[in-house]
C-alpha cells in the first residue's frame, strides 16, 4: 500500500481535504497523523497544491512520512507519490 502521512494540524487541513475529495484515495487517522493511501498497491497519490490553498512554506512541510512510497514530484504545482517499486 502506497501512503503518505500528514500531521493533523490546522495548517494541513487543505491537503487532507483535497485528498478526501479524490475517489482514488483513502484518508484515515493513525495516531496524530492522517494517512493518505491509494486504493491499489501500485496507485499514485497526486495532490494539487493550488486546490489545497496552502502557502508554499506549509506545502513543502506537509509530508511527515511515507509508507512503500517515493515522492517523484513535490513542487509549486503538485505532490505526487508512487509505489516505491514502481518508481525504480
How much of the sequence is in beta strands? 35-45%
Shape: globular
**Averaged pLDDT, please?**
93
Q: How many helices?
A: 3
What is the assigned CATH homologous superfamily?
Monooxygenase component MmoB/DmpM
Rg estimate, integer Å? 12 Å
What is the CATH topology descriptor?
Answer: Phenol Hydroxylase P2 Protein
Poorly predicted parts: none
Please state the structural category: alpha+beta
CATH architecture: Alpha-Beta Complex
In oligomeric terms, what are we looking at?
single chain
Q: Which labels suit this protein?
A:
19% helix, Phenol Hydroxylase P2 Protein, three-stranded antiparallel beta sheet, 7 strands, alpha+beta, 3 helices, 88 residues, single chain
Structure in words:
With 88 residues, this protein is an alpha+beta fold. The protein has a single domain (3-86), classed as Phenol Hydroxylase P2 Protein (Alpha-Beta Complex), CATH 3.90.56.10. It is 19% helix and 44% strand. It has 3 helices and 7 strands; from the N terminus they run βαβββααβββ. It has helices at 13-21, 49-52, 56-59; strands at residues 3-7, 25-30, 33-38, 44-48, 63-67, 69-74, 78-83. The strands form 2 sheets. It has a 4-stranded antiparallel sheet, covered by helices on one side. β2 and β3 form a beta hairpin. The chain is globular, with a radius of gyration of 12 Å. It starts with a strand and ends in a 5-residue tail after the last strand. The relative contact order is 0.27. The mean pLDDT is 93.
